[in-house]
Design a protein that fits this description.
A hairpin with a 5-residue loop joins strand 11 and strand 12. The protein has two helices and 13 strands; from the N terminus they run E-E-E-E-E-E-E-H-E-E-E-E-E-H-E. The chain is globular. Strands 1, 4, 5, 6, 7, 8, 9, 10, 11 and 12 form a ten-stranded mixed β-sheet that branches. A three-stranded antiparallel β-sheet has the order 2-3-13. 11% of the residues lie in helices and 31% in strands. The protein is mostly beta strands.
Length: 246
């Protein structure tokens, strides 16, 4: 598989995004691939028949992850992947076409920035994954944010990473756990840096679902080019994370 460098079409990827004892930082970092988007969700904001309604605004879209029992909302112009699909980062130290998947999100949505020549590729992605082998949601949220920003934008660990300790998290939908924020600046420019800034951010949220399994929700995106989602938009997305039973 060729590297898709942070964004591309939403296509199915192997594996389920399980994070069996992920360690902070990329073991090799990679790029992405994702599930096939629904019929141009940018023009189809209505939820699928029988699907949950958005909680942020009527024209927002709902991303559902029945395997993990989670749903969240994204803005109308975002591209929503099909249920069960995923977005994977590949090992960029390996020859193109032979990269191993080193990190992934499932049940994803992402956006394209008009200012960045990505050829249809995404400049930001949000989704979920299992987090196993860690003792609590505090460490899990930290690991999710760390892995996303480094696998996505600084696999060589050459930039400047800022990753404060995670903080308690709770929203109006009964989801409670921890949240972590990570940024990387001055990372070497690669094909994944569609906007050419060398800067990126990630958010990791970790909580127990209705079955008491630990779930990680993550968002990662390039920053510093003027069209990244506003803080208010990101807070609305994170605030919409909720339990979902098909």
């Amino acid at each position: 598989m060729a590297i898709l460098s942070l964004g591309a079409t939403l296509t199915a990827c192997a594996g389920d995004g399980t994070a069996e004892a992920d360690a902070p930082g990329p073991s090799a970092g990679g790029s992405p691939s994702v599930p096939e988007d629904r019929d141009d969700p940018r023009h189809s904001p209505e939820p699928s028949p029988g699907g949950p309604a958005p909680v942020v605004a009527d024209d927002w879209q709902v991303v559902t992850g029945p395997t993990r029992g989670v749903a969240f909302d994204v803005p109308p112009h975002w591209r929503v992947g099909a249920e069960g699909g995923g977005y994977a980062w590949f090992d960029q130290s390996q020859p193109e076409g032979y990269q191993d998947v080193v990190h992934a999100l499932n049940d994803v949505a992402g956006f394209e920035a008009d200012a960045c020549p990505g050829g249809g590729r995404l400049t930001g992605v949000a989704g979920t994954r299992w987090v196993r082998g860690v003792p609590d949601t505090s460490e899990a949220a930290f690991i999710v944010a760390d892995n996303l920003v480094l696998h996505g934008y600084d696999q060589t660990l050459s930039g400047t990473l800022d990753l404060p300790a995670s903080e308690p998290f709770a929203n109006d939908h009964g989801v409670a756990g921890h949240i972590a924020h990570a940024t990387v600046t001055d990372a070497p420019l690669t094909a994944g840096h569609l906007c050419g800034t060398g800067d990126a951010m990630a958010i990791g949220v970790a909580f127990l679902n209705a079955d008491s399994d630990m779930v990680g929700w993550g968002f990662v995106a390039e920053t510093g080019y003027g069209e990244e989602p506003t803080r208010e938009t990101i807070e609305q997305i994170v605030g919409s994370i909720r339990f979902h039973t098909p």
